[in-house]
Amino acid sequence: MSKVYDLIIIGAGPAGLSAGAYAGRARLSTLIIEKAKDGGQIVITDEIENYPGSLEDESGPSLVGRMSEQAARFGAEKVYDTVQDMELDGKVKIIRCAHGDYQSKTVIIAAGAYPTPIGCPGERELTGKGVSYCATCDAAFFEDFEVFVVGGGDSAVEEALYLTKFARQVTIIHRRDELRAAKSIQEKAFANPKMKFMWDSVVKELKGDGLLSSMVVENVKTGEIREITADEEDGTFGVFVFIGFKPMSAVFEGKVAMENGYILTDEDMKCDVPGVFAAGDIRKKSLRQVVTAAADGAIAAVQAGKYLEEME
Ligand code: NAP
Predict the structure, then answer these.
(1) CB atoms within 10 A of CB 223
(2) Straight-line distance from the first to the last Cα atom of the chain, in angstroms, rounded to the nearest whole number
(3) What pTM was computed for the model?
(4) Which of 4, 35, 191, 297 is the most exposed place for a label (fewest CB within 10 A)?
(5) Residue in 175, 186, 239, 292 to alter for ligand 1 test, most ligand atoms within 8 A of Cβ
(6) Residue 20: Cβ within 10 Å count
(7) Alpha-helical runs (H) found in the chain
(8) Confidence at residue 44, expressed as pLDDT on a 0 to 100 scale
């Protein structure tokens, strides 16, 4: 752990990769630490139509691929490791990971957020066996099968529309009788003949012996409980869950100020610890989008550079 980087970026989603590109261009020695796969949530997004300049039919993985290449082109190094602990208070920050420790003068936390589970019995056991949080990853497994989507926000409705390309029928199960999704997305959903809606309903249990075969749903207005079982010929069906996200911030608890698990920053992405910044979905903010994550990353990297200049 001899090298002291100018900047360590935790997370290689749009915020981290944008910070990496900006830091690299500013000639900061930069290390990006990513625990799994570049891209964060963007890699489970089929179509990114609202990132400025994105290509027609731009997929999350294709956009993130270009972001990764760009950060690398500007000299940002990358390591795949899991952050377990850190010392952020000194002039040299230490990031302790599963495979070693890394040091830097500044840190940008861009670890993102993860999908919220329903939290009902059977969900964990049947994840990957009928229950999914990623339409892009798993839609093809449900070609001509019946599929249910839980949630009523932009993600749920957009992903449900994507699933209609594969499944024979897609039913949105929403806990209210009105969708939260943007009206333009709703219009597409209501016009799609493959889409159905189960209003005022919540999933109480997911059942199956190694493969999802039935689901208990409650109508929250009437209290009626229904068990939906797989078509005999199919033997299974799909349940895709899109009910929001949780910040990946447990490891940062007690290290930087947070509210409900989201890291607090000022408009320059500064945390309450000097030399530490946060960017993207992990911070408290009003709009979590690729474009805002990328903007956060750029601001954080420029501010990290300014902090380093002032340190000298
Ligand atoms: P979201 O907007 O927070 O919507 C979550 C949905 O899940 C809501 O309909 C909510 O119901 C429902 N829900 C929450 N907890 C639940 C529970 N325990 N059981 C059942 N249902 C539950 O989340 P999102 O759709 O993932 O979107 C997150 C952010 O990303 C939003 O700002 C969204 O606009 C943005 N986004 C944008 C795009 C785009 O612009 N193309 C695409 C995807 C996401 P209620 O409505 O009753 O609260």
Answers:
(1) 7
(2) 22
(3) 0.74
(4) 191
(5) 175
(6) 31
(7) 14-25, 60-73, 123-126, 135-138, 154-163, 183-191, 290-311
(8) 67
